[in-house]
Amino acid sequence: MLHVLPVTSAPPVSGPAVAALPLMEQFYTIQGEGFNAGRAAYFLRLGGCDVGCVWCDVKESWDRDAHPRVAVADMVAAVTAFPGRNVVITGGEPLMHDLTDLTAALHGANCQTWIETSGAYPLSGDWDWICVSPKKFKAPLPEVLRQAHELKIIVFNQSDFQWAEEHAAQVSEHTRLYLQPEWSRAARMTPLIVEYVKQNPRWQVSLQTHKYLDIP
After folding, report:
1. pLDDT per residue over 147-176, tens digit each?
2. Where are any strands of DSSP class E within 3-128?
3. Which DSSP state fits 141?
4. 151, β-bridge pairs
């Protein structure tokens, strides 16, 4: 049985809630990674990130001012033009923004709210699924780790297994644990991940299945 953790809204990082957010791109696709892989989902990729992953494949998302501010109402209208009602808020680092208005509007449209975050900023908004994928360049906040439904560790080097365990020690006992090879290192790291999961079965393998499917 899946245990759903309580999720609480944090106060805004700065300033009042907003009715528009910088939007890099939006698209309807299949979630490719983690617990919800294989499910139809609408992605809202927000602009702005200061985490600075060297292997990030969406570096164009980092500059929040490079992307138009789109009204929350317009984003919800775009989402509900499609039959799926799972919405992934990603980035960039989406929690650089106060997401209270966005999640409230999505829930008002009978959508499920899923977030993909590094956990480096306080949690805002109301979430049905929280995926925390911590990065070495800016540490996740302990209070965000404790609320994660899913911990997804990107494995770039063999030393990342120990780093993964250090973060797994900070999450709830009900948090799903995933190890995912960094795409450019998949051929080398995937066999190591497979062996690690066989020896440590509380972990699961996550793959970027959308890349194998050649979809966004």
Report:
1. 999 999 999 999 999 999 999 999 999 999
2. 20-30, 40-46, 69-71, 86-90, 112-117
3. P
4. 132, 177
Instruction: Flag whether the pTM goes above 0.85.
Output: yes
- What count of other Cβ atoms lies within 10 Å of the Cβ of residue 109? 12
Return the residue matching tokens 């602009």: 47
Instruction: Write out the two tokens for 186.
Output: 């998949």
What burial letters (b/e) apply to 61-71, b meaning 16+ CB within 10 Å? bbebeebeebe
Tokens of 145: 């780790």
Q: How many whole angstroms separate alpha carbon 122 and alpha carbon 154?
A: 21
Closest residue by Cα to residue 45 from 75, 77, 16 = 75
Nearest of 101, 151, 100, 90 to residue 123 by alpha carbon: 100
Q: Enumerate the β-bridge partners of residue 40.
A: 30
Contacts of 2 (CB under 8 A, 6+ apart): none
